[in-house]
Amino acid sequence: MKIQPVIMSGGSGTRLWPLSRKARPKQFLNLVSDKSLFQETVLRLHDGGEIFSAPLIICGRGHAQLVADQLAAIGIEAADIILEPCPRNTAAVAAVAAAWVAENNDGALALIAPADHHVEDAAGFRRAAAAGAKAAEEGAIVTFGIKPTHPHTGYGYIQSADELSRGVYRVASFREKPDAKTAADYLAKGGYYWNAGIFLYHPKAMLDAFAAHAPLIAEGARKALAASAAENGARLLDERIFSQTPSDSIDYAIMEKTDKAAVVAPVDVGWSDIGSWSEAASDPEAAGHMMVDSENVTLRSDGPVIGVVGVDNLIIVATGDAVLVARKDKAQEVRALVDELKRRGREDLL
Amino acid sequence: MKIQPVIMSGGSGTRLWPLSRKARPKQFLNLVSDKSLFQETVLRLHDGGEIFSAPLIICGRGHAQLVADQLAAIGIEAADIILEPCPRNTAAVAAVAAAWVAENNDGALALIAPADHHVEDAAGFRRAAAAGAKAAEEGAIVTFGIKPTHPHTGYGYIQSADELSRGVYRVASFREKPDAKTAADYLAKGGYYWNAGIFLYHPKAMLDAFAAHAPLIAEGARKALAASAAENGARLLDERIFSQTPSDSIDYAIMEKTDKAAVVAPVDVGWSDIGSWSEAASDPEAAGHMMVDSENVTLRSDGPVIGVVGVDNLIIVATGDAVLVARKDKAQEVRALVDELKRRGREDLL
Hints:
Two copies of one chain form a homodimer. Chain A is α/β, with parallel strands linked by helices. Chain A folds into two domains: 3-272, Spore Coat Polysaccharide Biosynthesis Protein SpsA, Chain A (Alpha-Beta Complex), CATH 3.90.550; 277-349, no CATH class. Chain A is built from ten helices and 18 strands. Chain A has helices at residues 37-44, 64-73, 89-104, 122-137, 180-189, 203-213, 215-226, 239-243, 250-255, 334-343, and strands at 3-9, 56-60, 80-84, 109-114, 118-119, 141-146, 157-165, 168-175, 192-201, 229-231, 234-236, 261-267, 271-272, 290-292, 295-301, 305-309, 312-318, 322-327. In chain A, helix 3 (89-104) crosses helix 6 and helix 3 (89-104) crosses helix 7 (215-226). The model of chain A has no long low-confidence stretch (mean pLDDT 95).
C-alpha cells in the first residue's frame, strides 16, 4: 500500500486576521505549536517512506518561497510543488491531485488534506488513513468522520450508513453546518461525525467520479497541469486554462453526488480546523507579554508587546500595523472586520 | 499687571503608556484635541501680550527640539527655553522660574503651570489668574482651587479659610490624596478644592519663602541658572550644580510651610490632569478604527489600525511596538506594566 499525501495550502484564513494575511495566511503561522499548521500537516503525513510518499504541495502562486522555506525548516523534500495561478476551490485541486498521482506515483492512493488544520494525535491519524486504504483501493472515496466532542455549528457533518469493513462505513448523507438544535440532535442520535475535509481515494475512482459529475473541472485541471510551467522551483498551472476551470468545492461537485463515498469513523485524534482565534493558543510566556489582574485572555503577537490590565475572556492579536481585540465567543465575527477593510480598499492590511 | 507664564514640561506620564514614552511623554501628545496638552497650556496662557508675556518653557534636556517644533506649529515664540539636565521635581523648577522672572521680566508675576493638564475653558482660567494677581502682588503665593465635580481620590485637596478678596482665600491646609470616605466628606463639607498644581506669585515672595523654608534648593536653582549654557537653541541648567540641588515638590518644600498661601476658588473651568487613559478621548473616527458590536471603548493609536468585536468598557492603545488593553476603571494600574518593563530592562519600550 502506498499513499501519496497531497497538502492543499491555498486557503486564506481571514478569520485569523490580523496575523493571517494574504502574504502569510493561517496555514503558515505557528498557531498551536512551534511549527506552522502547514508544517504540522506535512509531518503528520510523513512516516519516513513506509506507506506515505514524499508530499505533493498545492498552494497559491505567491507562496512558493514560503512553502520551500517551511519545508526546508523541517527537513522534508516535496515530491512536487504545484502553484495555483488563481483560487479555484477544492474540486479543481482534487482533480489536479488525481491527475498528478496517476501520472507520477503509479498505484498510490491520494490523500488530500487541508494544510490549515490541527491534529493532536498524528500517529492516530495515520492509523485512520491506513484503516481507510482498503476501501479506497476497492474504489471508495473515503472521508474521515471526526468524533464530535460537542454540537459544533461551524462544521459540516457526515452521517454514516452500514459498515463496509471494520471502522469504515458507507456515507448516508453529507450535512451542511447545522443550527444549534440540529447539531444537538446529531450528537444525541449518534452516527454523525464532523467532516474534516480530508479525502483518500484511488486516482481512477476520483477521475471516474469527475467524469460522471463534473467533467469540465476534471478536464480543466488535467489540461492546466499538462500545460504547467516551471516557476520559482515549482510548477505553475496554466493560468488561462485554470482560470476558466469551474470553481466548486469537492463536497458539492463530487461527494454529495457519488455513490462511492465512505467514511472512516469515529476518528478520535484531537482534530480542529482552528477556524477562529478562540481555537488558537496564546503565545508562549516567553513572548514577554504582561498580564495584571486578568484571566482567560489569549494573546498573540508577531512583535508588539501586549500589556493587559483587569480584563477577561478576550482575544488580543497584535501586529505592527493592526490590532484585534475580541470577546472570545465573538471570534467568528472577525470576518466582519476583514470585510470592512476590503470595502475601504485597505489592501495593505489584508 | 504683567504675568509671566512658566510652563513646566518635565513630566514623564507613565500612566499614559504605551503612547507616552520617554522620548515623547504625555504633555506632547494630542490626548484631548488636535493640539498637545503642552500646546494647549501655552495657548491658555497667551492673550497677545495684554497681560501675559511670552512663555518661559522649562523642560527635559531631551525635549528641546520637540518643544521648539510644537511652539512653531502654533506660532508662539518662547521668551526662553530652559533645559533640565536631570529631573529635580517642582520646587527647583519654581525657584528657577522665580530667579529667571526677577532677572528677565521686571515687575511681572510668575504663573507656573504643568504642561500636561487639560482645561476646557481657557478664557475662564485666565480670568481666575487675573483674580489672583492682586493677592500675588501683595505677597501671597496663590494656588488655584478647582471646583470638585466628584470625590476624586487621585488629587490633592486645598482647604480654604477666610476670604482675602473677592474669590481669593487664605489657605487653611493642603491635604494629600484622600481615601474615598475622606474625599466624600470634603465634598459634603464644602470649602475643599482640587489642587491643580498651578501657582501665581511675585518672584520676591517665592524667593523669600525659599530663603525661609528651602534655602539649598533656591541656591542650587539660582546658581544652575547663572551657570547655564546655550544648547540646541535653549539654555541648559548647569548639570553639576542642578544634579546636587535637593529634589522636592513645591507643595512639600514651600506650600505646606508658608503662611503666604492663598487660593483662588472655586475655579470652574473643566480642569483635568488626564492622569490616566480613562480621562483621555478616543482617536477621532477618521483614524480608521473598526468597532463591531462594541460600546464604551476608548481607542488610541499612533499608527496601527484597531478592530474590536463584542467588547465594552475598555481602553485600547496601540503603537507599532506595544499594545495596552485595560478595563476603564483599572486604567491607573498601567503603571504596574511600566514598572514591569523597567524590571525587565526594556528601555526600548519606556
